[in-house]
Design a protein that fits this description.
The chain is an alpha/beta fold and 491 residues long. The protein is built from 18 helices and 17 strands. InterPro entries: LRR_dom_sf.
Length: 491
């Protein structure tokens, strides 16, 4: 066996360096700095102080609560458990729970909290190519972060501020002033902004925070934002004024709103109406998540007949409506609301609202004339061959279908002389009806369903009938045709 020449060895060096660089990029493209009990935090704190490694990070998840807790316990000269009991609070840490006969040993920090803080301050200034920053301060973590005098992020804003594209803040309103860059600092590449609107203390007055911190920050970036998301956890009387105070965002394409609904007389949507009027020429996606905060449903209320939902959005292509625990008698007006976008809508998702076969037919018939709806995700009471016939006939160009349901009909069994002419073996009625259908003209490519039966032998028959009737579908529940039929997993 001969030896490689020096030239060949040098060529391999360059190949290995490329592969090594690709592997390092993949390993460090997303990093976490959170609980000091976490191995992922330990890796980040040890490795990201190296500028070569830090330059590979594209996404950083920063959870400073636990570090602040341990640091303050150390400064107070107390064990963290005693310090936590004195404060009457605790911070969730990223420690896996392991069952066993013995109690879980007391965790130890991956490095002293003061050393961790020093490393954070150093590495923040080296994340020059960071694209996404997610900051989380949840619940009682606010107490420790608020007491801390450490400025974790100023060096970071100087390093990655011009390259950052996405900013997600899951922090209480009281902490916004400490995590956002000082006004009028402008993040020149910021396109996606996601904000959690919640209070750490019930008696916090959000008015000044909105006016002096949040609104100026959003308006500073109004020209470049393409996506804006609000997760409103509390009932704020000033949230509508906040929406009205925002400058027009000519690049905005996606708007997401999660908001509690107290009742007709207590939830003000005038700000949403104003926001839609200002941004109607731009929006192509709207995600709505409404959370009712009551259990008594007095008078039926046509929620979707409100003025804010009558504002035309002529470019809307993607609509998502999430109605968990939302009373059916409050969903009046939803069909006309959806149908007003029949000429532009490409995808529709309605979660946690169960359609009957009749209401689903009314829904899809509204899109028959346009024929441009490509993706549909809905929940139905009963899944049947008739449901597929309705969808196939009215949505011939549909490509992706996701269905949630309570049960499969028709129930029962019938003899199948074609497959079993001699022994009279029975097959499910569902399978017999599916065998008589022809969906060869339907352009459906992906079908996502709940498991069709709990018994594996019955489930295989159901899946075979479904796959045979839909020849153009390429993936069933994320699996190709053969995998879907043969897998014994609960799919």
């Amino acid at each position: 066996m001969g030896f490689l020449s020096s030239r060949d060895v040098k060529a391999l060096f360059s190949v290995n360096r490329v592969l090594f660089s690709i592997a390092m990029d993949e390993r460090y493209k997303e990093s976490l700095i959170g609980s000091l009990y976490s191995k992922l935090t330990h890796r980040s704190l040890k490795r990201l102080v190296d500028p070569e490694v830090a330059s590979r990070v594209r996404t950083l998840i920063f959870k400073p609560g636990h570090i602040c807790q341990l640091l303050q316990a150390e400064l107070a000269g107390q064990p963290v458990d005693a310090f936590t009991q004195m404060r009457g609070s605790n911070v969730e840490v990223d420690m896996p729970w392991r069952p066993g006969p013995h109690p879980h040993p007391t965790p130890t920090a991956c490095m002293p909290p003061e050393a961790a803080v020093n490393n954070i301050l150093e590495l923040m200034g080296q994340l020059c190519f960071l694209r996404t920053l997610q900051i989380e301060i949840r619940g009682r973590e606010h107490w420790y972060f608020d007491d801390s005098q450490i400025d974790f992020l100023t060096a970071g804003w100087e390093a990655f501020g011009s390259n950052l594209r996405s900013l997600q803040l899951n922090v209480p309103l009281e902490d916004l002033g400490k995590v956002l860059p000082s006004f009028p600092k402008h993040l020149g590449s910021l396109e996606n902004l996601s904000l959690s609107i919640t209070r750490a203390l019930f008696n916090t007055d959000e008015t000044n925070i909105f006016r002096e911190i949040l609104i100026p920050f959003i308006n500073t970036h109004h020209k470049g934002l393409r996506s804006l998301s609000f997760d409103v956890a509390d009932q704020f009387n000033t949230f509508s004024p906040l929406l009205k105070a925002l400058l027009p965002m000519p690049s905005l394409r996606c708007f997401k709103l999660k908001q509690p609904f107290v009742g007709e007389q207590h939830t003000n949507f005038s700000g949403l109406q104003h926001f839609f009027k200002v941004h109607r020429p731009y929006l192509t996606r709207f995600d709505l998540d409404i959370m009712p905060t009551f259990t008594h449903h007095p008078i039926p209320f046509a929620f979707f007949a409100q003025d804010c939902f009558n504002v035309p959005l002529p470019k809307l292509m993607h609509l998502s409506i999430h109605l968990q625990h939302f009373p059916r008698q409050y969903a009046g007006g939803m069909l006309p609301y959806i149908h007003q976008f029949r000429s532009t809508l490409r995808s529709l998702k309605v979660s946690h609202y169960q359609w009957t076969s009749e209401s689903l037919q009314t829904l899809v018939e509204g899109f028959t004339s346009s024929g441009i709806l490509k993706e549909l995700e809905v929940s139905i009471l009963e899944f049947s061959p008739d449901i597929l016939c309705t969808l196939g006939a009215n949505l011939p160009n549909l490509e992706v279908l996701s269905l949630d349901f309570q049960k499969v009909i028709p129930e029962g069994q019938i003899a199948d002389p074609a497959r079993y002419p001699f022994n009279g073996k029975l097959i499910p009625l569902f399978c017999a009806e599916m065998a008589d259908l022809d969906f060869s003209q339907w352009r459906l490519r992906s079908l996502n369903l709940k498991p069709l039966h709990t018994d594996i032998s019955e489930r295989i028959l159901f899946k075979e009938a479904l796959a045979n009737a839909l020849p153009h579908v390429e993936t069933f529940c994320g699996l190709d045709r053969e995998e879907y039929i043969s897998t014994r997993n609960f799919v």
